[in-house]
Design a protein that fits this description.
This protein is an alpha/beta fold. The protein has a domain at 17-264: TIM Barrel, CATH 3.20.20.70. It has helices spanning 17-20, 35-40, 99-108, 126-140, 156-164, 179-186, 196-210, 227-240, 265-279, 303-312, 351-361; strands at residues 30-33, 56-60, 96-98, 115-119, 145-149, 169-175, 215-221, 243-248, 289-290, 296-298. It has an eight-stranded mixed sheet. It has a two-stranded antiparallel ribbon with strand order 9-10. Helix 5 links the parallel strand 5 (145-149) and strand 6. The longest helix is centred in the middle third of the chain and has 15 residues, at 126-140. It starts with 16 loop residues before the first helix and ends with a helix.
Length: 365
């Protein structure tokens, strides 16, 4: 198979053709698994660049007729050419396996796997199937389960059931920093079903059910927003009691945004630092200063404290649901950049990495 440079391995990875036959099957009996998770579970051969280690198994519901949404940057969008089961997602293949085999392999990797995450898609069967999968995981697995929600197909009572059936955390993929960008890329602009108010309502209600710091919000940096707009969105998420999980936009070939440029590294680094400061209650967006183009020029805390954040490197690591520590179990190796130009680090930064992000942080293009 031909993988893009964003693939997690430093050697060519192949998937046995027989495994792809599973893609003709549907959830809940079958689930797609991220390439990184399939490698970690030993279901697909390969090596991680710099020995990155995944601690969260990411699974995705799958149906022959695909996702009903049409998000402009997503590889699974319904208007993207090709058969649904052949479409990449986050620039790599997601092979499908029997759910029972995923459970078996996960249990064999207890020392490595600290969490499993069920990602819903926009499909009329996804809600009930997610309930079934969650109950199965809660009964048979050793680790906590998160759910990446699809608010469009959910009611408040469904959020209650997710907690009742065993999920300890949920996440809402708001992705866009502003309602205008959300509507352009996920709603009416692409003839999609998603609504900004529905997503924010689900985020609010999820916090009321699961509690503070038990709900995440995906945000994608570089969809056309300013740094100020993204940082104030992160603050809004924090005000709700949730935490933000950042992604640097990275083009998916064949999507509507496949020619949209990735944001400058400096923009992403400054937003990462601001997110760290806000999510750990060190300061607020209102205390930060921005230039006329919306770039942050003062983080609202003493310079020595910013320098300490940079030197530890934690702010630049992948953000997601935690495992056995506060550092994200869901570290998605190289999910938003090439390994040659890492945006979200899936491991502890070394001295060379720190020097690079320090330089990038000061780049104002």
């Amino acid at each position: 198979m031909n993988y893009p440079e964003t693939a997690m391995t430093i050697q060519e990875t192949s998937i046995d053709e027989n495994l792809n036959n599973y893609a003709a099957e549907n959830s809940p009996e079958y689930l797609k698994v991220s390439l990184a998770a399939a490698m970690t579970l030993g279901m697909v051969p390969g090596l991680f660049y710099r020995n990155a280690c995944l601690h969260c198994v990411n699974v995705l519901l799958t149906y022959n007729d695909g996702c009903r949404a049409n998000c402009a940057y997503c590889g699974l969008q319904k208007s993207r050419e090709g058969n649904y089961n052949d479409k990449s997602f986050i620039r790599v293949d997601w092979p499908a396996f029997k759910t029972e085999n995923i459970i078996k392999r996960t249990l064999e990797k207890k020392d490595v796997i600290h969490r499993i995450c069920i990602s819903m898609i926009t499909h009329e069967k996804a809600k009930e199937d997610t309930f079934a999968i969650l109950r199965n995981f809660s009964k048979n697995l050793h680790c906590p389960t998160s759910i990446l929600l699809t608010p469009t197909i959910l009611k408040h009572s469904d959020i209650d059931k997710f907690k009742e059936y065993g999920a300890d955390m949920v996440t809402v993929a708001l992705d866009c920093a502003t309602p205008e960008l959300f509507d352009e890329y996920r709603g009416t602009g692409v003839k999609g079903p998603h609504k900004w108010d529905k997503y924010n309502d689900t985020l609010d209600y999820s916090v009321s059910v699961f509690g503070k710091n038990k709900v995440g919000c995906h945000l994608v940096v570089g969809l056309g927003e300013t740094e100020k707009e993204m940082i104030f969105r992160i603050q809004d998420v924090r005000n709700k009691g949730a935490r933000s999980h950042l992604f640097s936009f990275y083009q998916e070939k064949g999507s509507k945004l496949d020619s949209h440029p990735q944001c400058p590294a400096g923009q992403f680094r400054r937003v990462q630092v601001a997110r760290h400061i806000i999510d750990y209650d060190m300061s607020h967006a209102e205390d930060m200063e921005f230039d006329n183009s919306g770039k942050v020029i003062d983080f609202g805390i003493p310079f020595k404290d910013v320098a300490k954040i940079v030197e530890t490197g934690t702010a630049f690591r992948t953000t997601g649901c935690p495992g056995k520590s506060e550092i994200s179990a869901c570290n998605r190796p190289f999910g938003d950049s090439s390994p040659r130009n890492i945006r979200s680090f899936p491991f502890e930064l070394n001295a060379s990495d720190i020097a690079r992000v320090r330089k990038e942080l000061l780049e104002y293009e």
